Amino acid sequence: MTQTAENIRPGIDEEAIKYVLFSAREHDVKFIRLWFTDILGTLKGFAITVDELEGVLRNGASFDGASVEGLTRADETDMVAMPDPSTFQVLPWRPSKNAVARLFCDIETVSGDKSVTDGRQVLRRNIARAYEMGLTFYVAPEIEYYCGVNGPDREVNQDKGGYFDQTSVDGTGADLRRDIVLTLEQMGIPVKHSHHEVGSGQHEIDLRHTNALTMADSVITFKVIAKELAAADGGYATFMPRPFGDRHGSGMHTHMSLFRGDDNAFFDADADLNLSEIGRQFIAGLMRHAAEICVVTNQWVNSYKRLLPGLEAPIFASWTTGNFGDLIRVPTYRPGREESIRVEYRAPDPAANPYLLFSVLLAAGLDGIEKNMPLPEPLEADVYRMSDSELNDRGVVRLPRSLEEAIRLAEDSDLLEHALGPIVKENFLANKRLEWQQFSNTVTDYEVEKYRNL
Predict the structure, then answer these.
(1) d(C-alpha 438, C-alpha 197), whole Å
(2) Distance in angstroms (rounded) separating the CA atoms of residues 447 and 7
(3) Whole-prediction pTM
(4) Distance between CA atoms of residues 230 and 78, nearest Å
(5) pLDDT tens-digit profile of 13-41?
(6) Cα–Cα separations (whole angstroms), residue 174 to 166, 226, 237
(7) Does position 367 have pLDDT exceeding 90, yes or no?
(8) Which of 166, 340, 383, 453 is the most interior residue, by most CB within 10 Å?
C-alpha cells in the first residue's frame, strides 16, 4: 500500500505511452473517450480516434472549457485535457469491433499549468498534504441507487424486494446488479459486496478500498456503467439521493483509513476500540467541520430529503460504534485484521462530486490531527431521543436541514477554502446559490395539489 511522491502525479513517460498504444491495438480500439468532470462531478468529455492517441498522450488535447460548469476563470477559455495513462480501459458495453476505450484526464491551462478548478487536481493537492505528513488516504464507498423499468408504477410492480432479499421478488434489478459488478471488474474495479437495499428497486454495491484518486475515478465510472447498462435494457438507474418520497434515500457511506507505508495509522493494539490517537483526532476533525462541509457531501436540494429522522441517515454530528443513525461509525475490530480499522462517514450521497467529497473529508480529518482535537466519548444512546440540552452538553451539532442552510454555513468556512481553493469554493457556492434560487422559485406539484382549490 506504499505510495511515493512520484505516483501522486503519474508522469507520462515512454513506457506508459507504449503500454496504452499496445493495449489499444490488442483490443481493436478505434475511439478513445477523454473523460473529466465539471465542478459538480458531472462527467464531460470528447472522443479522439486511435490515430490521434499517441500525440494526445504526449501533448494533451485542447478544448473550449468556457461552457463546462466551473472549469475556467473569466480570463480563460482554452484548456488542455492531459490523459492519465494509468486510467486506460476498454468500455465493455461497447462493440468489441472498432472498440471504444476511455482515459481520465487532468485539466491544464494552455501554458501547461495545472488547472486550479479541476476536481482531480483539487484531490491531488489534498492527497499531497497527507503525503507530507507521511500518510496515504484510502477510501471505500457503499454506493446505493435505484433502478427499474421506465415509469415508477411499473418499477414497483417489477421489484418488491427488501433488504438482503435473494428471491425472485428482486425482479430484474438483481440481473442488472450482477452485470454492473461484472462490468466493474472487467474494468479493473474490484467489488467487495452487492445486495438489495431497503427500498423497492433499491440496490447497493460496495467497492473495495483503494487510494482516494483511483476511487474517485471508479465512482464516476460506476455511475456511467449503471446508467448505460440500465438504458440498454430499457430501464434506468438513478443516483438521486431520494427519488421516491415513500422510500428510503440512497446514501454513499464512505469508509476511510490512513496508512503509514503498509501500516494502518488508525490501529493501536492497546487503545480502546483499537482506535489510535490519530484515528480519534481524525474523527474529531470530521465532527468539528461536518456542518460546514455538508454542502459538498450533500450538494443537491434533494439531498436534504434524505437527511431526515427514521431513514437511517444522520442529522447530527455524532459518532458511535454501533448505531447506524449517527454521522460517524467505527466498525468493530476483528482480531488479526489490523488493516480493517477504519472510520465510516454516513452523510454523503451518490450525487456528490467524489473528487471534492474525498478532498473535504480528508482535509477535515487532517485538520483534527494537526490541531490535536479532542474526541468526546461515543454516543451509545439513541441520538434521536436526546433533548436539545443533552445534545448541547455533549457538544453534538445538528447538520443543515436544507441546501440553503448548508450554503450559509459553508460561506465562511476556512476549511472549505483551504481544501478546495478559493476559486473552486466560490464557483461551487455560486452554483449552489443558483440551484436554491431556482428551486425556491419553482411551483411544485405538492403546492398545486394542496392549495389550488382552497
Answers:
(1) 32
(2) 53
(3) 0.91
(4) 35
(5) 788 899 999 999 999 999 999 999 999 99
(6) 8, 12, 13
(7) yes
(8) 383
Which H or E run contains 299?
none
- Rounded Cα–Cα distance for residues 450 and 440 (Å): 17
Q: How far apart are CA 3 and CA 313, in angstroms?
A: 34
Q: Which of 22, 170, 23 is nearest to 90 (CA)?
A: 23
Cα gap 227→298, rounded to integer Å: 21
What are residue 332's phi and psi, to 5 degrees? -60, 135
What residue ranges define each of the domains in the chain, with the CATH number in brackets?
A: 6-115 (3.10.20.70), 125-445 (3.30.590.10)
DSSP string, 218-272: HHHHHHHHHHHHHHHTTEEEE--S-S-TTS----EEEEEEEEETTEETTB-TTSG
Mean pLDDT, range 188-215, rounded to an integer: 92
pLDDT digits (tens, 9 = 90+) for 55-107: 999 999 998 777 676 555 544 578 899 999 999 999 999 988 999 999 999 99
